[in-house]
Amino acid sequence: MGIIINQSIRNAIISYSGIIIGFISTIILFPFILGAERFGLTRTLIAIMTICVQLVNLGIPNSIIKFFPFLAEKTKNPQGLFWLFIIPPSIGLLVFVLIFLGFKDTVLGFYSDSSLLTDYYYFIIPLVFSVAAFGLLNSFIKASFNTVFASFLQEILLRLIVIADLILFYFGLVSFDQFIIIFVLNYTLQYIILFAYALQKGYLNFSPSKKPFDKTARKNISQYSFFAFFSGFTTILVGNIDLIMVDIFEGLEKTGVYAVALYVGAVISIPRRSISKISFPVISRSFKENDLNNIDDVYKKSSLNQLLIGLLIYIGVIANTDNLYALLPEVFAEGSIVIIIIGLANLFDVATGANGQIIISSKYYKFDFISSSILMIVSIILNAILIPVYGLTGAAIATASSIGIYNIIKMIYVWAKFGMQPFAWKTLGVIALGISVLYISTFLPQLSNIYFDVVIRSLLMAVLYMGSVWVFNLSEEINSVIKGVVKRKKN
Fold first, then answer.
1. How many CB atoms lie within 10 A of CB 345?
2. What percentage of the chain exceeds 70 in pLDDT?
3. Which pTM was predicted?
C-alpha cells in the first residue's frame, strides 16, 4: 500500500495543480475568450475524440496493465513487449480513419445546426491518433508503477500550452484556425515527449519481444481485451454522450454552457483518477498473488481517501458557485444546477472506491461488460428523453442517474463475489464533517472583492475541514502525510 500512497500523493499534487490551471483555462479563459459557441466546439471535438479513442484502442491499455506482470516474467526483454501490444490498435486506427472519412456526411448529419464542427471535422483524426498512442504508452509505463510523469504531461503541461494558445488568440497573434491547429498539435506533443521519456528511462526499446506472446497468451489477451474494450467504451460513451447530445438537441452554444458546469462538477472525481493510476496495477498484481486481503485494504482506503478529498473539493465548489459565475458572461449562469447534480454523482462515484478495478482485474472481468452495457443503454435513453424536455438540467439528471446505477451494480457484485464492500464507520464521519463545514460556510460574509472572497472562503473551509480530519483521525494516510510535512518543517 505504501507505493500507492506515495505515488497517489505525488499524483494528487499534480492533479490539484492541474485543477487550478484547468479552472483558469477551461472555466474562465476558454468561455471568456472564445465565447459559448467556439468553446462548445472544442468540447465537442474532445468528446468525439475520447469516444473514438476507445474504439481504436480496443481495450488494449487495460490488457497491458493486467498481463504485463505475467509476460515480463517470460522474457529478458520486457521493454520490447510494447510493440506486440500495439498491433491491434494500429489496425483499429486504420479502420477508424477509413470509416470516419467514408461516413463524413452521415456523422455531420447529426450536427446540422453546428456549422463550426463541419469546418473542423478532419481535426478529429490527428486528435484520435495522438491520444490513442499516448494512452497505450502511458499504460505500458504505468504497468511498471510509474504514473507521475504522464500525469504531469496531462494535467499541467497540456493545460499550460492551451493557456498560451488562448492568450495568443486573445491578442490577435493567431487566427481561430491557427488556434485550433495549435490546440490539436498540443496532444501530439504530449505523446512525443512521453515516448522520448520512455526511451530515456529504459521502459521501452526498439526490439520487439515476441516470445511471451504464445497461443495461450494471445487468446487470454484477446478475450480480456474484448470485454475491457466494451466496458471501457461504454464508460467513456456515458461520460461524453451528454455533451454530444446537448450539441445535437440544443446546439454548440448550450454545449459550451453545459461544458463549463460539467467540468466543474467533474473536478470532484480528481481523487479517483489520482489514486486509480497506481491502485489498478497493484490490484492486478495482488490478484496474481492471490492476496485478497491487500485488495480489500486498497478497496476501503481508496474509498475513504477519495471521498475525503472529493468532499472537500465539492463543498468548496458549491460555496463558490456564485463567485464563479460572476466572472463569466451571463449566458453561462444557466449551468449552476448542473454543477450540484453532476458533483453529487461524482462524489458517489469516488466514494465507491476501486470497485471497477477489482472487477476488471479479477476472473470475473466479463461482468464489467454487462454492467457497462446497462450503463450505456440507461444513459442514452435518459439523455434522449430528458434533454428535449428539461434541457441542460435533464442532461445532468440523466448522467447522474447513470453514474449512480452503474456504481451500485458494481458495488453489489464485488460484495457478492469477494465479500468486500468499500465503506467503514469513518465514512459517516467524513460525510457529517462535509455537511457541517458547508453549513458553517453559509454564515461567512460575502466580501466585495470576488477574488478575495474565493481565497479566504476556501482557505477557512479547508483549514476547518482538514483540521477536523486531523483531530478525529479520519484518515491514517492523510494524517501521516500531515505529520511528515510538519516534521520536515521543524527540521
1. 23
2. 90
3. 0.73
